[in-house]
Structure formats: structure tokens, C-alpha cells
Amino acid sequence: MTIESHLRLAAVIAAHTDHKVVGRTRLQKTVRLLQRLGFPTDYRFTLHFYGPYSEALQAEVNLLNVVGLIEERPHVSHDGTPYYTIAAIGDASLPDLGDFDTVINRLDKADSVVLELAATYDTFRELGCDHDEALRRLRRKKGSKCDESRDRQALDLLRELGLPTD
Prior knowledge:
By secondary structure, the chain is of the alpha+beta class. It is 54% helix and 14% strand. The N and C termini lie far apart (35 Å). The relative contact order is 0.17.
């Protein structure tokens, strides 16, 4: 990874509300969809428990945390579930993200489960599944997270981004 890619990732984090991403899963899915839209990164994603996941992306988050461009903090929700916040810090001169700022803003506002479903469905489509097969696989993988409303919201999000859904 180059310094430019490090700064780009820090800029993606900084573009979120309060310069913070709530949840590693959200960051993974956001970067995955940004990359599908042409954002200049080359993380390799594989299907994991929560959908597409990149070990290289998490390694870069760890590096940015060590060098002080971001701060990743563990938390525990009221129900005992652990999660992380990833916040941009410092006065580093971060690159302009251009039109991707608008996309990041939209993804930041999406429900976290809907974002997870959208990224996972899109991964199945990119693997060559047609719409029906991608939905079938999504529902099998995500189980109770899928329902008519969330499925529709995930597909609407992908359509809004210009990614294939039909």
C-alpha cells in the first residue's frame, strides 16, 4: 500500500458524520461498494460471516491507527455485543474524494443491516449470479436479517448507486 492509499482510507473515514465510522462491518461494506463504483483502491474481498471482507483493509486500519491518522476503539453495546468506532484524527492533509463524498454520505445514512445486505448481494452478482440466484444466496447466508423491507431497501440502495440489481 502507498501513502496515497493510506490517506485515501483516512479521508473515507473522515467523510463520515463526526469523522467517525461506527462498526468495522460498516467500514468494510462502505469501502467494498466504493471500490465497485471505481474508488481507487484494490482491496481483495472474500465472502465472510458478515459478507464481503478484506483482510488487507483491516490491516490498513490497524496501520493507520498505529501511525495516528485514525483511532479505532472497542465498545460494548447495551446488549453486550462488542463493536468498534473508527475515527479520523489529527490535522493530516487528506485527499479530496470528489464525487465519492456524496456516495459516502449516502452509505453513512444507510441502516447498517441494509448496507450489509446490499454489499453481500452485490458480491454475489459480481461472482456471476443473476438476480434471483443472488437473492436466494443472500437469504440463505443472512437468514433472519433478510425480510421483504430490508431486501427492498438494499436493492434500492444499489440502484441508487448505479449497481446492477435486475
